Amino acid sequence: MANHRTRGQDSVCMNRALITLVGLLGAAMLCTDAAVAQQRPRLVVLCSVDQLATWVHAMGAPFYAKDGGFRRLKNQGVTFANCAYEHACTETGPGHATIATGAPASLHGIVKNNWWDRDLKKLIYCVGEPAAALPDLPEGSNRGPGRLLVPTLATSMKTHIPECKVASVSWKDRSAILMAGSDSDVTAWIEATTGNLVTNSKWVEQTPAWLTQFNKTRAIDSFFGKSWDRSGPVAAYEGLVDDRPWENLHYNGSRKRTLPQAMTGGGTEITAPYYTQIYASPFGNTIVRMAAQAAVRGMKLGEDAATDLLCISFSATDVVGHYWGPQSVEARDALMRLDQDLGLLFSFLDTEVGAGAWALFLTADHGVAPSPESEMLKGGSGGRGPVDAWVKSSIESALRQEFGLPVSGKFYVERVSENAVYLNGLAIAAKRPAALRTATKAAMRVRAVMSAYPTEEVRGDFKHTDPFRRALAHGLSKQRAGDVQFILQPYWLNGTTPASHGSPHSYDREVVAMAIGPGIPAGTELSQSITPGFGAVLLAKMLHIPKPSAAHEEVPDGFFGPR
Question: What is the mean pLDDT of residues 273-298?
Fold first, then answer.
């Protein structure tokens, strides 16, 4: 990453240095990172947009509003043109853990949203753990940050900035929890069964007054009956088809795949299905913005000299992308509306914290693939099907053919999920190397599979010449990986969801990254490669505190310049 001073700026600094010692010191303050210390923000924000791939952002960029958030980030901040995840497990849990820690999944341990536990013989949720509910929020129980293995930006800020306050808000529990980890004062998420913003005893002994008040206002209920229609300019939707057969129907009983749609959940009064429909609409992001603003006001974030941290993750873009595909009218409109919500959030921060007194790094937890059908209609390759079942059947059959019936248990294959195969350890114990080779070859025979590897063969391949092997290595954590890893062919999906992610292909790994704040070079686009974890490193550098201990990226001296 290069120094952003021009030769002219350097010359000005040198001329001032020749005049007087005072001029020299003044120029040094302008031309080095020391200037940042004088402009240290009172609030820093880690912001994630769930499922915002670089290619999706690029398609929407020409149509963002003049007063929207994305245009402000572009004009007043820095755009990182080459931001990509190191790990192959491009899912919500791993992505948010990387954003928080600056580390890949191999270090932070959140290798999937769910992974198979061999001893317990069950799936483990990445933020599932015993946690007592608060009396007034019973739906918030049994979620926590305990499976995260390394410290977050919040940890560093709490350690090095006395009186620092931390809040984390999202619709998804795993997003809110993993972005701040165990060092948040309040972590809160929306429960779709009740529409409440909830937390639990992992963070507080009783529900904060601001959170109780937010739920009492029932802001989420104010969208009942509201129409979701196109909100952007006409040109934003040109070329998009608003009724494709592989899309989901809207969740209000209309039996339609088109806009506009009424927010009713299919009923005449507010019930749980209504909250589910809100989640699958741009209004889910609006609710998260409102909750984040309530946290800023209620916790008085950014009001004193001790810099505070706000983590905010917008989840609805992910749900909309899954249900209708990233090239749908719904997904495009969700992006246009998110742009408006970001603009409102930034204006709110200007008012509540002060213009120039806050900084923000925005990125995404993962990208997304186009719907396979859209690629095939253009003459490209792609497909979908029950790939996990195909892989399981192929491996089970091959192992039985080579070794006979398993002597321990009913099957050789315990589980196939999220591109990993878990074998019955007892059944293959005496023949493990041969069994792994057979299983890998059998996985490769499935037409949807591009490549497969025994886990131990790729573990540690962080510098391999094959980028896919590197990505797999960065996604493997001890005790949380299967025996065989496989990668699907480009534009292939497991299951019937219109669109998804989770692969090491570029459309899943490459995501948006932008930053704004004191000392950030305004209106700049940088081509240097970073990961989404760079934000935690950048904000730590801005605050002159150590970066999270597992983060490996660096902000070079000279990055920050005069505004």
Answer: 98
